[in-house]
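Quick illustration, no need to memorize.
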Amino acid sequence: MKKTCVATMLALGTFAQAERMIVSYDNNGQGLKNGHQVLVEGDGWFAVELDENGKSAMRGKGGFKKMEADAIRYALSVYNDDAGDPTLQQLTPYAVYQSQADQLNLQSGQKVCVIDSGLDATNNDFDWSVITGDNDPGTGNWFDNGGPHGTHVAGTVGAEDNNVGVVGMAPGVPMHIIKVFNAAGWGYSSDLAHAAQKCTDAGANIITMSLGGGGANSVEENAFDSFIANGGLVLAAAGNDGNSVRSYPAGYSSVMMIGANDADNNIADFSQFPSCETGRGKNVRNDENICVEVTAGGVDTLSTYPAGMATLSAATADGAGVASSAMENLGFASGSTYFMGTAEATDGGANGKICMIDRGNISFHDKVANCENSGGVGAIIINNEPGMLYGTLGDPNNTSIPAVGAALEDRTYLVGASTATVSVGASDYGYMSGTSMATPAVAGVAALVWSNHPTCTGQEIRDALKQSAADAGAAGKDVYFGYGIVKAKDASDYLTANGCQGGGTDPEPPTGEMALNGDRSKGGRQANLSWTGGSTTNVDVYINGVYNNTTNNDGSVSYSVNKNSSYTFQVCEEGSTSVCTNEITL
């Protein structure tokens, strides 16, 4: 009785369900809109939601011409991975296109230090002649995998352009690999501080860290401060908990915090977004260097794995590669295609063929089982919403034929194809998601840009990446994207047009139209500040992020300083932490 009741309710719900329709009318049809909520209208037509009774009534009214479904239009994918089998051809991940890394050629002079879980020597998609490494005590050899993470990260930075596998952001860039994770997959702040020195000793000018944790540590922070002070650039992942918690080392001012976006320029739902505010009470101030500064592709990122550790799919239709995602069954199949609809029953027409199946109504397992029980040799299940279909066959899995998911955007091509192949197997290439994937992407972009502007410092490259990033999300800088999605060619063009110092030390326009300049005199023992703007009688001066004193808003002040130390200055309207100048370091 319960089943009958549910079925009746579903049937009634389907009949009564309103559908958005476009109604066209002639000169006598203005009255068709009476009694309806018009959603949008144009010359001789309007859109309205109607159930079946409403549709029938509408058709019988004077002036009615025709009615048609108001079809949904989806945003198509902005960027896509190349489709195909990386063991047979070279694939370019979508983030390379998205970040314009394919529009800039790597020059000499760069070395990226990858602090992670090691780079497995079994993967041949690297120029091993320019890769070196170090181990921390207890981690094992840097060239043995401590899991796939480090190999995936390194591939995103610099997998070689060699007509096979994948290509990194900065293909073939020299790398120094430092293995800091133990067998349990973690390390200490001291390990990172020690690794920073090893990066320096190896001649690296960029450090990338796809790692983090809670709590700041002064020794760790000082190590990265020193690397930056010597002209380097340090990048670290914002974190993957999808909250506003600040993770370290990304949270240090000297470290560039990287968030993750997807292929459609949307922020990843897991990407952390800490505030840019620091200090308490009157000393609260904005520091853009302790929050996300830029983002890069970090959702479903294709890169290198230790040999055979990944499971990867490949599919073709009429001989052309089609993007796919693997389900559990390993194997290879090829043949003519057969469209099974939603494959809710066996169908003898699928015998010996690759089943093209629409998602919906029953489980993926049952769809594949019906294909296999019909004699089908492989299955491609097509999503019913925009994007790639990622699915599993569940447990227990009583099927054995290779099966993959496919994107809705490819449905027309797949259903119309005459032949197809499906392959699912162990691979040296696979997908991962996280700010861990976005961070090496930005490191690779930085290496590309810096190699074309070798006289710049790491800080100047950092500024250029922010100045040239493509705004995304809310207009202007925000806590999710920072300045936006990183763009290699645009950053290089920015430096060509403006020079290394074109971005200044704070590329964000000064808040409240206040601006600060300065210099040092008396052999470096005096710091001289000059500013413009501000509406209060007095101003507050901050030194190294800490309130120092209040002085007259007369546009200048000087301080005695240690000639062997550097100091960061900022001037704010008295009592304000938002109406401030840019920061300068003298």
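The two ends are 81 Å apart (CA to CA).
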